[in-house]
């Protein structure tokens, strides 16, 4: 409520009458709170833990210890990049798409969209939560790989970190696109089907080694194929520029389409 004076509108109530003063929080504070909320929800969900933690750990130990497939020794050097790629796509794409789809179905996202939090902050918070979970996955899988005999040098460590960042951005954008544009039941079915498809593409790219050149090229232009190829080369101390360019193009395309199609209800 205001009154008009010669110098213009002046507040009726003195500063400090209402405490705390109701106002929107700062952008960093909102982003931190939303990131903490989304990361906690992801980590508390048992289905998400199965997808993002238990399956990658099982694959890493099983494919390294058991004589499955004809892999060069040491097996961990082939298995670790593959499992890291599976973990990133599980969290960034499948897990996030399903979570967003059901948040929209039950109205949780719509209610969040009706408060003072801007939409960009909600999307950024979900993406940052994916980064947090992928970081935890990387630490867990890296520790197990270290025990199993994978000891990267500093260059390989830096290159692998760079690929993880680019790959996480690509799959997070694809997860936002799928989860924010279709009905929840369709998202659930499609995200699980695509998880198996991407698992197959990763296997073709890293395990077979006998695929025709045309098939190998086709796989490497997919997000899963590009990610596992980039991680393999980083694990060997090489910078996979073509694969990183493919991931960047997928990120840009998915982000552009998601901005046009993302729905909060």
Descriptive overview:
74% of the residues lie in helices and 3% in strands. The protein has ten helices and two strands; from the N terminus they run E-E-H-H-H-H-H-H-H-H-H-H. Strands 1-2 form a two-stranded antiparallel ribbon. Helix 6 (154-179) runs antiparallel to helix 9. It is elongated, with a radius of gyration of 22 Å. The mean pLDDT is 84.
Low-confidence stretches: none
The helix/strand class is mainly alpha
Q: How large, in whole angstroms, is the Cα Rg?
A: 22 Å
Total of helices: 10
Measured as a percent range, the helix fraction is: over 70%
N-end to C-end Cα span: 35 Å
* Main beta-sheet strand count, sense and barrel state: 2 strands, antiparallel
The neighbouring-strand order within the major sheet is 1-2
Shape: elongated
Strand segment count: 2
Q: Secondary-structure element sequence?
A: EEHHHHHHHHHH
Beta-strand content estimate: under 5%
User: Average pLDDT across residues?
Assistant: 84
Characteristic terms for this protein:
2 strands; single chain; 10 helices; two-stranded antiparallel ribbon; 3% strand; 265 residues; mainly alpha
SSE blueprint and pairings:
Blueprint: E1 2-5, E2 8-11, H1 27-44, H2 46-65, H3 75-105, H4 108-113, H5 119-147, H6 154-179, H7 184-208, H8 213-220, H9 223-235, H10 241-261
Antiparallel strand pairs: 1-2
Helix pairs in contact: 1-5, 2-3, 2-5, 3-5, 3-6, 3-7, 3-9, 5-6, 6-9, 6-10, 7-9, 9-10
